[in-house]
Amino acid sequence: MPGADHCLQVRFTDPDANSRLTVALRPVNFTTPVPTFTTATTGVVRGPGTPDTLTARFCFSECLDSKGQVYLLDVIVADDGCSLPKRDTVRVAFTAAPPPDAAPQLTTTFPPGVNAQDAPPITVRVPVGTTYSATLAGLDADGDPLTLTATGQNFDLAAAGMTFTAQNGRGQAAGTFQWQASCAAQQFPDMVVTFRLQEQATCANLSQTRTVRFELVPTPDTVAFLPPNIITPNGDGKNDSFVLPDLPPDLCDGRFGSIAIYSRWGREVYRSGSRSFTWAGAGVASTYYFLITYTDGRKYKGWLQVNP
After folding, report:
1. Long-range contacts: 165-172, Cβ < 8 Å, 24+?
2. Is 186 helix (H, G, I), strand (E, B) or coil?
3. C-alpha to C-alpha distance for 144 and 163, rounded to whole angstroms
4. What span, in angstroms and rounded, lies between the C-alpha atoms of 102 and 85?
5. pTM of the model
6. Backbone angles phi and psi of 158, in degrees to 5
7. Bridge pairing between strands 53-59 and 7-13
C-alpha cells in the first residue's frame, strides 16, 4: 500500500560445504516493473570464513499497480553444483496499489471551449495592430511540481510576435500569453499553439492541455472618414492647408499609395506619396478634386474648395 514498506528480505542456505548460491526473481503473471535487489544476490555458504546463511533484500516499485489482481513472484535460489545445479523456489503472492494522484487543473482566460484533450482548437481572431493577452493558472491538489509551457505547432512563437512567460511551482503555476498582432504573422497561415500544464508526480505524470488557433484579421476600415472640404490659405494660421490626419489605416496588403489633386478641368496640380502630406492650395480660388489610392486598390475621392 502507499506509504508501506515495499521491500522484502529473503534468507537462503545450503547444507553442502562451499556452495555458491545465487538468488533471482521471476515474475509469473506480470511483466513490469520487476522488483530489484538492493543487496548482493550471490555468495558462498559453509566455507572457511563464510556464513551458514545469506540474506538478500529486494524492493517493489512504489508505482507498481496490480489493478486489484493478485500478482505472483517466484524467488529462486540455485547452487553451483555439478552437473545440474539444484534450485529452491518461494512463490510470493501480492497486491500493489500506487500512490493516489489527482490530475492537475488548468484554467485560462481564453474563450470557452471543450476541455477534452482531443477537442478541436479554440479560435481567437485578433485585428492587425492590436495586442491580445491571456492568462493561465494551474493547480494540483496533490502538491506536485507543475510546469506551464506554450508551443507553436510548426511555427516559432517569437517570429509571430507571441510571448509566453510562466511562474512554475509546487502545487500551482501561472502563465501569461501575449500576441502583438502585426503583419509579420502573415507568413504563418496556421498558428496553432498548445498550452500544457504538466505535473511531475512520483508515478503517473498527468497533464492538461488547451489548444488555441490564432487568426490575424484586418483592422476595420474607417471608410466613413470625413475629410475637410474647404481651406482658407490666407496665413492666419487657421485652416491654411489641406491635411488628412484621419486617413483610413494601412493594412498588411494595402498601404497608402498616393494622393493626387486635380483642378476642375482635370489637370493634376499636386501629388504626394506621404500620408502626412500638406497642400496649401495653388494660389487660386477654385474647386479642386482629390483622389487617394491604396496599394490594394482601395480608392477614396472627394472635392475641396480653396478660398485664399
Report:
1. 169/145, 170/143, 170/144, 170/145, 170/146, 171/139, 171/140, 171/142, 171/143, 171/144, 171/145, 171/146, 172/137, 172/138, 172/139, 172/140, 172/146
2. helix
3. 26
4. 49
5. 0.65
6. -65, -40
7. antiparallel
- Up-side HSE of residue 135: CA atoms within 13 Å toward CB? 4
DSSP 227-267: ---EE--SSSSSS-SB--TTPPPPBTTB-EEEEEEE-TTS-
DSSP 8-state class, residue 219 = P
* Residues 113, 212: Cα–Cα separation, whole Å: 10
Rounded to whole angstroms, the Cα distance separating 115 from 117 reads 6
Written as nine digits, the cell of 83 is: 552437473
Which mean pLDDT values do the consecutive 10-residue runs of the chain (308 residues) have?
93 94 96 93 94 96 93 96 88 94 93 68 90 97 95 95 97 97 89 95 89 85 71 87 84 84 93 93 89 87 90
| Contact criterion met (CB below 8 Å) for 268 and 261 | yes
CA 272/CA 224 separation, integer angstroms: 22
**Residue 272, strand partner residues:** 259
Tell me if 254 sits within 8 A of 298, measured CB to CB.
yes
CA distance 279 to 242: 5
For 38-161, strand residue ranges (E) read 42-45, 53-59, 71-78, 87-94, 105-108, 122-127, 131-139, 145-152
